[in-house]
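Could you help me review a protein record that somebody else here produced? This is what I was given.
***
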Amino acid sequence: MKFHYLLVDDLVGREEFERRVDAKVAESGDLLDERTAAMLVVRDLDRAHVRIRDLSGTSSLACFFARVLSVEAPREFERSDGTTGIVANVMVGDETGRAKLALWDEKAGGVSEIGVGSVLEILGRPKGGGGRVVDVTAIAIQEAACDITCNEADTLAPAGPAGDIEVRLIAVEAPRAFRRRDGSPGEMVEAVVGNEKGIFRLVAWVPETLLEAETGTNVVIRGAVARESDRGIEYSLGEAGSVSPSDREIVIPMDTIAGIEEGKSYSIAGTVVSVQPSRSFVTKGGRPSSVRNLVITDSTGEVPVVIWGEKADGHLVSGDRIEVYNAAARRGRYGDTELHLSWGSALVVLAGEEEEVDVRGTVIATGQGVALDTGDACYLLADPLPVGYDLRVRGSLHRGVITVHHAEAVIPDPGDLQSRLDRFSGQP
């Protein structure tokens, strides 16, 4: 009932609408179900269902029936404020034309339940303008029991047949929640995979399918559906999909910094030469996010890198050897070219060697955590020690972080202290 009430909520209140629906059911002697009665009430208020050919002349919400012609996998995009959105497109049609439904954010997750050939009742907001295909922002959709025929010329093929791909599992994001069309909660997980043909984004609608595989290994993914997007081929993996180990060696081609051009995406292996702390900000939509700037170099040059979202909060230090995948090249604030990492990108830190250290310094608090300042360098501590103390520390150093095995207080030398005091006070 809520579905149909949205069509007339500017004409009658919710209670009045429900009263009219109940009256329709009573008048029929309980022969009408609630959905049919609600449709009749909408018709009585001159908000009847329309055909697709009439959508372009509709200036507000419209309701129509249509058959699903094709379903595209959800894709993520970066908004102008740095936040990430998700959108999925569904092509539908009737005997009068075609419409492209855009499902945004949480609604996009529900496309895994939409099958080609099914008939939907759609509540949406058409965009202005004409054309052979009408663009519609979907507000709500539900399956319908009626039959819809489409002209042969209006029938589209699905995004692509399910198949097998053999790839390296480069990175897997944490599962994210979405809400299905029936209101029940669900989870999806996004990954970045690659092989000799390139780097691809993969969305799995059953997170366990990917989470059970080890990142960095080569796998065979069965049942993946491919589609073309503005950033290349993307794959969608449903309940029937599977992931299993592969014994084949996969070599992923990497780009060079010298070859970067604005407007394309690149995968680069390099070394971090400078890194700034992560900065928190609030998006225009009111959500917290993070951004971080660093510079990486390879044998051909160096390039600024901007990391958005949760990736910005990872531990990075100068000297780290990293690989970035599917990073978009954009013009920076000062006219230089930058690589931007957001959803659909991956950052991999290559494991460096550990070394045993025996150093002396003062424990200080920094923006990245408690650290030991030796005067020549500053090392983060894996486990915090009391701030302000002079300590001698023995432990393992890895990527700028010391795991302390032994720490002892340093007793100041009285003669050295007196000499420093004398110099400070100007005494000979």
Observations:
- DSSP finds five helices and 24 strands in the chain.
- The longest strand covers residues 232-245.
- Residues 79 and 428 are 65 Å apart (CA to CA).
- The radius of gyration is 29 Å.
